[in-house]
Structures are given as structure tokens and as C-alpha cells.
């Protein structure tokens, strides 16, 4: 029974952090974290009464009251009704059978984090002078007093990006606290960072030689810079490896991208001084429910999470429930994941969440490589280390310099201890990306005595070059340049190369392009909902960095920086979050669905050359990669029309998609609307061969009253799309008009089975262009 419930929930709440793999590591008799969801609270029960009821459920499977109290981790007593507890699979299965319990599912595991010029680039994409971006930020009062909840791995409060100079008092509606933890005092909150919480229960202790520490939340299998060692001589630079320490290195960069202050000479949008308020909640899983739960109670109006979001998102759904008359629910924004370019890798698949992909900007950090035959290969780097000027160094391919026994399937990838010192010493080494961290490949070259590293892309990464602060001179090159360098090495008796000084170049084209790492659709859980929703800058983004960590986060690297360049959907997500906060400031009565619609329907599908967006390999980037397109904040502030959706609409969507009743007070009907009929700003349908599918949408006027919108259609190949009516006449602001979309697979269409075709429909009054992608799965 519990597996069935788990799979149902999995079908809608995106793979719950590889729960199948994690659960297999536990025996049925070993207690692990399970989350029990019981829907909404009813009546006027006090917090103590709710907690007591949760304990009574545990008593039905535990031997004593004491064991029941010891097993419960969190009681969710605000936006949702449920609890997290340590249970065996048998106990969890028994609780799942109780009538008042809707879901029970595993809560074991850890989140994986999905991790300047970008804002200026976005502004220039909308207007060559970039002045309109200033207009939006000024109109929004720089997001003054909008409260943003950041669900992340921590923050470095000393960063100048988080100073509160010029900010007024904390809004009276804020009810949260600034919780103290190791190396974090309440005095480090201010009028910018107004609150902070961390959650430990459910983490798994890890014992080391000197200390009992806990597995760092959100970290993959990486080595900490210092192996859990405290240095009393430099207490301000302790490695923040404990989840109880809010001063974490990763979260700092996302906070800074999302809502940092101007820092002279560092940030690239010098005229903007964001005045959003931030509330930090540190990462977790069972803890994640608690954070969202409290974030809503403390009245965060905007929820940002740059993670895979494997935890429950009921709090995000329920944030829409109490929004009167379609007004302010919490705007939930999550990253799409970094598992691209493979299909069906996108995560955060709920319709009430804005899911953000990653794309490039028009900046490069050119570090030219001059080969011995005088051919110049353009690479990129941000390492401060340099080779001697005008000196040619011997050049070798890592695959030709490996120790005996190196597996052939990882040859050339400069994995730890794979290079032979006698073959590498003093040379420039060409290493290939693939297995292992990029920066660790540089560490291996340095260990073997190499002079520099050239890091080459594989075919899947194409022209996309994420730059790194390597520990030695370096330059990274595209996949086609790897071929050129290898051809030179293998055709020359004594190949040589030099790496020139790095320079920053702006105005690079084509830009933006979708990154190879950005996760792609289709939506593997509900094929009739397009994900991701939108793309934004996520490649080589400058942001604040924790001084407790080196720029590479490797133990061999002892450098400290205040700002760092990072890539990932963790960096694109904050751009959309910041834009949503500005929209919330300009239009405080807009619903989260309206904000999502404004962002999506005004997104661009063209690059700075006026051509369609492409991906890192040079191919066209369709909706499976970019959703509706690339973020345009100014256009989003005046969308003309919006697609609205309510809490009840989402419940009906879940009913139709999974047959599951998410809210006990809202039973599923016998014939709920199909998932494709959710009033979403994109259209995704499955059409049988030579068949026809009809879906419905409605739009509301937010553009200024009397207006006539006319539809234009780009038919997907092999498909005919008809919209009725073809014109929409609005007389008042807020008026809503419904329209029908009929999609027909043409006879004789020989498209491959199970293929996806894409087109679009656009409503325009001559000023506004409200575009929705159409994705058709042909069966």
C-alpha cells in the first residue's frame, strides 16, 4: 500500500530525491524518515492539540508513548496537517492505511544544489540602451518591502551584498525570528536579511576522529576544504560544514544574485539597489516541509529555491489556498536541474511552481591558446595564474600521459592520480571533461607537475564554456576546438602551446543560448504540462561568495574570495525570482499565477542576432529546453493579458493527473478537467494519429481596459491548430474571456511515433504580444 501511495505521490511531486535507490539501502526493520500528509487543518484546534493528535497516530504503531514522542521529528501545524517521524516501512505502511491519512512517503535523503553582466544583458536584450530596466526597478521601488523566503544551504552575512544601508524598518507584517546557530548570531540579521532559521532533525550523524558532525545538507560527494577541523586562530573563517550553521558557502551566491545590494566595482547592475527583504531557511527534506510551513506563517510573499526541490511541495500548493479573490499567494520559483542535455531530466514539475532553465549571456573571458604552428585557439578562463609570456611549452594529451591501469572509458579525463609525473612535468596538458569535477582535473595536472591545463568540452557540451578559478594556468575550449588541438598534437613530433592573458569581452553573439547542463523536458510525470517554464542567465554568473570557502571548494585550494563566477540553474533561478519580486511590488494584488503568466508570455525566443535561440551544440532550442523563452523583465511588467489559475484548479489537475485527492475538503469529481485543460500559459497535448484534441484557455485583461486582441498561429509540423474566437474584445480591466484551441494531426503525417512537434499562438492588440508555445505529442 505504501509503495502504491509513494508512486502516486512520485507521479506528481518529482521523484523525491531518488527515493527508490535510497530506500533500498535500508532494511524494512530499520527506522528512517517518513512524512505523513493529512491534508488541511479543520476546525480551531490549538497547536498543542494538533501535535497531540499526531502523537496519537504514532501510538497506533509504536509500543509506548515515550517511543512515539522520540520518533516524531516535526509537526506541521500551519499551512498543512501532517508530521515527519522515524518509522520502519512496516509502521509507515500501517499509518498509510488510516482513513485520515492521505499520503505517507519517504523523507530520507539530501537535496542536490543546482549550481554582473547578466542583469545588464537582460536589459539590453529588451532595449539597446538598457534604460527600460532602470524604469522597471524604479517603478517597483527596487522591490521595497517585498519579503522573499530563500530555501537554501545558508548565507555569508558579512558580504557587502547584504548590507542594510538606506533601508527602512522591517515591515510590521513580518512575524519571523533570527535564530542563532553555530557561528551565527541573531545580530547578523539586519533590515536586509530579516530572519533566519535552520533545521536539523532527520539529518544523519557522521562521526569523525575529533568531532561528531552532520552530513552537509545539499552537498554531493565533495571534499570539504578542511576535513572538519576548527582553527581557533581564524574563527571568522571556519568551514561551515554543519547544517546548523547558517553561514554556508553555497547559499550566499544565490541570495546575492536574487536580491543583493550594489557593491562598487563588483555587481554589474550599478544603478539598482534592490530593497527586497530576505528570510533565510536552511536546506533539508523533512526539514524542508517545516521551513516552507513556517515561511508561510511568517508571511514570506515570495519563495525561492535553487535546488532540485525533491521535498514535498504541498506547502507551495497550499500557499494558494487562502488567497482571497485570486490575490497574493506565495510565488514559488525553482531551478530546472543540471542534468541536461538528456531528455526528460527536468525536475520541479508541479504546475504551481515556476521552473527555470539556464542560458548564457553575451560575455566571455577570452584566454587564447597559441599552438606551435601559430594557429590561435580561443579559450576562456578566470584563473589568476599565468604562464610566462611569449614562451611555448610542450603540449601533451592526457590520454597519452596516464599511468598503467587507467580505465579506457575515462582516458584523457585527468582523474585523481591518473597522470604520470615523468610524462607531464612542465607541460601543458589537454584534459577532457566528463567524469569528475572540472577544477579537480586542474588539481591533478598540478599534482603531476604540469605547467597548465587546457580543459576540453565533450560533444554534448558543444560551445558552452563554464569558467573556473583553476589552481594553475588554464583555458577551457569548445568541443570542435578539442578536435583541432588533438589533430595538431597527433600530427606533430614536438607539439607546443602557450596560453595568453585572459580578457573580458562583452557583446558576444549569439546570445543567449541554452546551456548543455540545463535539464530538458518532456515532463516525465505529466506529459500534458510543459516544463521548464522559462530560461534565464545561468552560465558564468558573478555573485557573492562565502569567505569560509575557496573558489573551487577543494581542500587543496587555500584561496579566499568575496565574489565568484558560478554556473547552473541555481544561478538562473534567482534572476526570475528577482523579476517576480519586482512584479509583486508593482502589482501587489496579482496572483502567483498572473506573475507566472506575465513572465512566460512575454519571454523572448530570439537571440541578440535576431535569430531563434540555439543550444550549446548549435541546434535550435525548442520549448523542451527553454519553455516559453528567455526572461524579459520589462516586458513582463506590461503583459497585456494573463492566464489565471486557482488553488481549486490545481487540485483538479492532480485529480485528473493522478486520481489523487490532495485536500480532504475537496473531493475529486468523477470527471475532472483533463490536465491539458489547466489554464496554463503554455499548451501541451497528446494527439492520436489522424485525431483531434480540443483544449480550453481563458485570459484576463491587465493592460488597460478597452482592447481588441487578434490571434496568430504557428502550426506545429504535421498539425493544424484552430483558435475560436479569433479575436477577443475587452471593455474593462480584469475582464476574462475564454477561447477554444482545436489541434488536429494531419492525415498522411509520417512523423515518427511518439514525436513532439512545436508551434505557438500569440494574442496581440498591436502593443502587447501574449505568446504561448504549443507542444504536440503525436501518437
TrEMBL record:
Q: Where is the Subtilisin-like protease fibronectin type-III domain?
A: 677-776
What Pfam family is a match, any one? fn3_6
Q: Which InterPro entries match?
A: PA_domain, Peptidase_S8/S53_dom, Peptidase_S8/S53_dom_sf, Peptidase_S8_Ser-AS, Peptidase_S8_subtilisin-rel, S8pro/Inhibitor_I9, S8pro/Inhibitor_I9_sf, SBT
Q: Give residue ranges for domain Peptidase S8/S53.
A: 327-607
The chain positions of domain Inhibitor I9 read 33-106
GO molecular-function term, one example from the UniProt record: serine-type endopeptidase activity
Using the record's annotation, list all stretches that form the PA domain: 414-482
Which key words are in the record?
Hydrolase, Protease, Serine protease, Signal
- Domain of life assignment: Eukaryota
- What GO biological process terms are annotated to this protein in UniProt? proteolysis
Biased region (Basic residues) positions are 272-302
Give the signal peptide range. Answer: 1-31
Q: Where is this region: Disordered?
A: 217-241, 267-303
Family membership:
Belongs to the peptidase S8 family.
Name of the protein: Subtilisin-like protease
**To which species is this protein native?**
Vanilla planifolia (Vanilla)
Amino acid at each position: 500500500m505504501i509503495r502504491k501511495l509513494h508512486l502516486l505521490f512520485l507521479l506528481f511531486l518529482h521523484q523525491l530525491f531518488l527515493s527508490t535507490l535510497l530506500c533500498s539501502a535500508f532494511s524494512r526493520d530499520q527506522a528512517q524518515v517518513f512524512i505523513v500528509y493529512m491534508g488541511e487543518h479543520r476546525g480551531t484546534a490549538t497547536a498543542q492539540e494538533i501535535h497531540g493528535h499526531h502523537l496519537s497516530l504514532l501510538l497506533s504503531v509504536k509500543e509506548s508513548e515515550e517511543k512515539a514522542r522520540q520518533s516524531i521529528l516535526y509537526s506541521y501545524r500551519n499551512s498543512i496537517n501532517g508530521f515527519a517521524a522515524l518509522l520502519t516501512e512496516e509502521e509507515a505502511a500501517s499509518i498509510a492505511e488510516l482513513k485520515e491519512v492521505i499520503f505517507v512517503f519517504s523523507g530520507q535523503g539530501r537535496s542536490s544544489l543546482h549550481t554582473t553582466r547578466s542583469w545588464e544583458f537582460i536589459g539590453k536584450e529588451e532595449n539597446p540602451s538598457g534604460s527600460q530596466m532602470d524604469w522597471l526597478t524604479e517603478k517597483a521601488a527596487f522591490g521595497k518591502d517585498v519579503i522573499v523566503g530563500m530555501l537554501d544551504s545558508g548565507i555569508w552575512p558579512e558580504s557587502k551584498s547584504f548590507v542594510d544601508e538606506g533601508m527602512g524598518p522591517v515591515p510590521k507584517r513580518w512575524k519571523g525570528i533570527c535564530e542563532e546557530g553555530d557561528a551565527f548570531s541573531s545580530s547578523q540579521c539586519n533590515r536586509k536579511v530579516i530572519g533566519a532559521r535552520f533545521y536539523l532533525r532527520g539529518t544523519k550523524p557522521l562521526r569523525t576522529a575529533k568531532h561528531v558532525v552532520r552530513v552537509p545538507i545539499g552537498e554531493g560527494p565533495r571534499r570539504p576544504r578542511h576535513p572538519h577541523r576548527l582553527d581557533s586562530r581564524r574563527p571568522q573563517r571556519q568551514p561551515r560544514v554543519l547544517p546548523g550553521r547558517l553561514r554556508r558557502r553555497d547559499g550566499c551566491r544565490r541570495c546575492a544574485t536574487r536580491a543583493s545590494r550594489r557593491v562598487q566595482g563588483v555587481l554589474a547592475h550599478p544603478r539598482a539597489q534592490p530593497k527586497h527583504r530576505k528570510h533565510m531557511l536552511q536546506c533539508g527534506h523533512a526539514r524542508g516541509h517545516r521551513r516552507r510551513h513556517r515561511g508561510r506563517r511568517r508571511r514570506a510573499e515570495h519563495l525561492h529555491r535553487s535546488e532540485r526541490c525533491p521535498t514535498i511541495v504541498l506547502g507551495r500548493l497550499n500557499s494558494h489556498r487562502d488567497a482571497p479573490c485570486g490575490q497574493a499567494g506565495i510565488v514559488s520559483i525553482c531551478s530546472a536541474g543540471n542534468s541536461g542535455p538528456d531528455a526528460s531530466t527536468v525536475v520541479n514539475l508541479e504546475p504551481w511552481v515556476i521552473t527555470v532553465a539556464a542560458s548564457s549571456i553575451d560575455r566571455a573571458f577570452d584566454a587564447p591558446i597559441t599552438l606551435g604552428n601559430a594557429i590561435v585557439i580561443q579559450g576562456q578562463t578566470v584563473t589568476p595564474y599565468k604562464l610566462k609570456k611569449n614562451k611555448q611549452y610542450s603540449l601533451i594529451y592526457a590520454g597519452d600521459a596516464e599511468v598503467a591501469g587507467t580505465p579506457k572509458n575515462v582516458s584523457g579525463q585527468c582523474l585523481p592520480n591518473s597522470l604520470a609525473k615523468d610524462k607531464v612535468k612542465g607541460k601543458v596538458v589537454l584534459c577532457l571533461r566528463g567524469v569528475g569535477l572540472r577544477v579537480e582535473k586542474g588539481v591533478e595536472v598540478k599534482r603531476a607537475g604540469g605547467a597548465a591545463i587546457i580543459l576540453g568540452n565533450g560533444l554534448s557540451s558543444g560551445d558552452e564554456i563554464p569558467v573556473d578559478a583553476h589552481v594553475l594556468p588554464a583555458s577551457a575550449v569548445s568541443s570542435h576546438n578539442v578536435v583541432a588541438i588533438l589533430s595538431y598534437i597527433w600530427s606533430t613530433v614536438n607539439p607546443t602551446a602557450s596560453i595568453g592573458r585572459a580578457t573580458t569581452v562583452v557583446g558576444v553573439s549569439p546570445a543567449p543560448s541554452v546551456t548543455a547542463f540545463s535539464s530538458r523536458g518532456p515532463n516525465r510525470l505529466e506529459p500534458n504540462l510543459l516544463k521548464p517554464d522559462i530560461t534565464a542567465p545561468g552560465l558564468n554568473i558573478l555573485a557573492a561568495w562565502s569567505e569560509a570557502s575557496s573558489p573551487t571548494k577543494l581542500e587543496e585550494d587555500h584561496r579566499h574570495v568575496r565574489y565568484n563566477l558560478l554556473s547552473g540553474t541555481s544561478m538562473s533561478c534567482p534572476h526570475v525570482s528577482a523579476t517576480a519580486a519586482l512584479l509583486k511590488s508593482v502589482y501587489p494584488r496579482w496572483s502567483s499565477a498572473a506573475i507566472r503568466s506575465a513572465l512566460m508570455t512575454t519571454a523572448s525566443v530570439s537571440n541578440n542576432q535576431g535569430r531563434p535561440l540555439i543550444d550549446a551544440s548549435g541546434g535550435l532550442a525548442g520549448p523542451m529546453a527553454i519553455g516559453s523563452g528567455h526572461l524579459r523583465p520589462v516586458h513582463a511588467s506590461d503583459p497585456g493579458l494573463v492566464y489565471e489559475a486557482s488553488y481549486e484548479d490545481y487540485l483538479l489537475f492532480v485529480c485528473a493527473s493522478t486520481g489523487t485527492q490532495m485536500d480532504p475538503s475537496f473531493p475529486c469529481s468523477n470527471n475532472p478537467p483533463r490536465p491539458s485543460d489547466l489554464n496554463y500559459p503554455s499548451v501541451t497535448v497528446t494527439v492520436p494519429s489522424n485525431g483531434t484534441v480540443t483544449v480550453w484557455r481563458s485570459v484576463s485583461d491587465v493592460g488597460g481596459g478597452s482592447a481588441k486582441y487578434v490571434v496568430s498561429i504557428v502550426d506545429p509540423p504535421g498539425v493544424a491548430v484552430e483558435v475560436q474566437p479569433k479575436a477577443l474584445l475587452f471593455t474593462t480591466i480584469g475582464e476574462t474571456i475564454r477561447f477554444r484551441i482545436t489541434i488536429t494531426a494531419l492525415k498522411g503525417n509520417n512523423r515518427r511515433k511518439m514525436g513532439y512537434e512545436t508551434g505557438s499562438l500569440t494574442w496581440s492588440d498591436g502593443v502587447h504580444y501574449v505568446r504561448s508555445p504549443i507542444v504536440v505529442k503525436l501518437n
